[in-house]
Amino acid sequence: MKHLIKITIIALLAVSFTSCNKKSRPNYQYMPNMYESVGYEAYQEADVTIGQTEIFKNDMEARLPVEGTISRGYTPFDYANDIAGYDLAKAELKSPLDSTQFDEPRAKELYTIYCGICHGNKGAGQGKLVKREKILGVPSYDDAGRAITEGSIYHVMYYGKNSMGSYANFLSEEERWQVVSYVMKLKADLEK
Q1: Mean pLDDT by 10 residues, the chain (192 residues)
Q2: What is the DSSP string of the chain?
Q3: pTM passes above 0.70
Q4: CATH number corresponding to 83-191
Q5: Where are the domains of the chain?
């Protein structure tokens, strides 16, 4: 009889512990702020205290950067987004890449991804979208009326022109110069 009572008590304890266990959520939250964090707006003044500690003491929450600062890894482009800026870039802007830094396979890949769909793989202005008449008026790189230069290509890639949008957010500065070098190579091939 004593063994039966011990077995019954152990069974009741085991059932009571397992019946309270729910697998869909944790049973106890030892640090509830880790499970349900408090959201703060980064650029607003906040008066937050946890216990005796002030979190944003002396209004030292996240701040906007100081005016005139430049982000790390960013190089400012000193030409305006207008016709005068385009003409100035066309006349004086040159590629910082020399012939040893030009990576033709990589530049061709970038050109195919971003430019070839409209301008065509050879730069003749006959990409897939032009052939399907989705976009019209894409000129060839050897068009004498355009007389493109490294600076004009880079300016158009940076700001966009007419129906072509900007690629400044898609390509890094170095990648844009790689594509510019590849476009100049395509232009030379078309003029042969």
Answers
A1: 83 72 65 72 62 58 73 83 92 88 91 91 87 86 84 92 88 91 91 82
A2: -HHHHHHHHHHHHHHHHHHS--TTS-S--SSHHHHSPPP--TTS----EETTEETTGGG-S--PPPTT---TT-----S-SSHHHHHHHHHH---S--TTT--HHHHHHHHHHHTHHHH-TTSSS--HHHHTTSS-----TT-TTT---HHHHHHHHHH-BTTB---TTTS-HHHHHHHHHHHHHHHHHHH-
A3: no
A4: 1.10.760.10
A5: 83-191
